[in-house]
Amino acid sequence: MSRIDKFEDLKSWQEARLLCQSIYGHLLSNEEIRDFPLKNQINSSSGSIMDNIAEGFGRSGNKEFRQFLTIAKGSCTEVKSQLYRSLDRNYINADVHQNLSQSCDNIGKLIMGLIKYLNSSDLKGGKFKNESNTQKTSN
């Protein structure tokens, strides 16, 4: 199992960051889209995925980490719903919608894999051990 010393090493966080960049490129930077409430909401919810992964990791306890991961997974689903609204309003085409939705699904699977790992792990997190012990994860 790989040793994870910082949240930036988590595959789920890396993929969430890429999703944010893609959403920015397809929706947020498009000045022709004047639906500011939707743009603000999808910006917030896509950012929430990566932010909650990072915040949970920073809490240094597996129980809290799992809690923040479930919030991040919920944000994935929220983004996916907002992508349907974007498609229905012709802000993105079907191919872009499919690619971004698939990214949400993949991130959700990564997050669930990390939650399952934490559920089966005997490690309680860094705040329960001395400084030389760090959390080990596979995602």
Structural overview:
The protein is mainly alpha-helical and 139 residues long. The chain is built from 4 helices and no strands. The protein has helices at residues 11-28, 36-58, 62-88, 94-120. The chain is elongated. The relative contact order is 0.19. Residues 130-134 have low confidence and may be disordered.
Give a brief rundown of this model:
This protein has 139 residues and is mostly helical.
Kindly list the characteristics that best describe this protein.
139 residues, mainly alpha, 4 helices, elongated
Oligomer: single chain
Radius of gyration: 16 Å
Q: Biggest β-sheet: count, sense, barrel?
A: none
Overall structural class, as computed from helix and strand content, comes to mainly alpha
Number of strands: 0
Strand proportion, as a percent range, falls in under 5%
Helix percentage range: 55-70%
Output the helix-strand order.
HHHH
Low-confidence stretches: 130-134
From the spread of the alpha carbons, the general shape counts as elongated
